[in-house]
Specification:
The chain is about 75% helix and about 0% strand. By secondary structure, the protein is mostly helical. Helix 4 packs antiparallel against helix 5. This is Intracellular septation protein A.
């Protein structure tokens, strides 16, 4: 099996990015937090107006997503998350608490991905397996299981743990504007870097004679 054939057998990164929401989806999700910060600033730090701006933008983004063919369930979940974030900030009276759900969700994601590796069900393998229609066949390939485990650690540390550290520090110190900026910068750009690095780790871990991600070498 030539190196070219192995490369061609791997799933395209664009497909994985699309599965995770893609650049447009990540940027759309960043708009309500930006709207919150802008509304909060221009109204002399009014959490109420910031919350209203975030919800209004979220509704507008939802309408545009529906027009692009997105499922209504996903749109409603995104809207509910923004409303919940706004209610938390309004309840506590702390603008930085608008970003608390984002912080906690990344803590949960880091733990979930780490646990998945420990129990030998690395989530990157689960995601790619679903994408390729393999179900759990990849787990019967020791080389693929090892490669997916190592590549999944990239997601744990480079994406989720990094976000927890940045968001947590800014939230603890009450840096609302910086939180809005970080929420945008650590969306699609960070996902793109994570996909690239984890893809490199994945293929570097596989033996050179391995047929590729689409062809698990099953051992019974």
């Amino acid at each position: 099996m030539t190196e070219r054939a192995v490369t061609e057998s791997a799933p395209p990164r664009e497909s994985l990015a699309a599965l995770l929401g893609g650049r447009r989806g990540a940027l759309d999700a960043s708009l309500p937090p930006v709207a919150f910060v802008v509304g909060w600033l221009v109204t002399d730090r009014s959490i109420g107006w910031g919350a209203a701006a975030a919800i209004a933008v979220s509704v507008l983004v939802g309408v545009l997503r529906l027009a692009r063919g997105r499922r209504i369930g996903a749109v409603l979940v995104s809207l509910a998350a923004v409303v919940a974030a706004a209610l938390i900030a309004l309840h506590t009276g702390r603008a930085e608490d608008f970003f608390l759900i984002q912080l906690l969700s990344n803590v949960a994601s880091a733990l979930l991905w780490a646990v998945s590796i420990v129990v030998r069900w690395p989530l990157l393998g689960v995601v790619v397996g679903v994408l390729l229609g393999q179900k759990a066949r990849w787990r019967r390939d020791p080389a693929l299981l090892r490669a997916y485990s190592r590549a999944s650690w990239v997601w744990v540390f480079l994406q989720y743990t990094l976000r927890v550290v940045v968001f947590g520090t800014l939230w603890w110190t009450g840096q609302v504007v910086a939180l809005g900026v970080a929420r945008t910068v650590l969306s699609w750009p960070l996902v793109a870097v994570t996909i690239a690095v984890s893809g490199w780790v994945l293929h570097r871990t596989l033996p050179k004679d391995h047929p590729g991600l689409r062809r698990p070498v099953e051992q019974r």
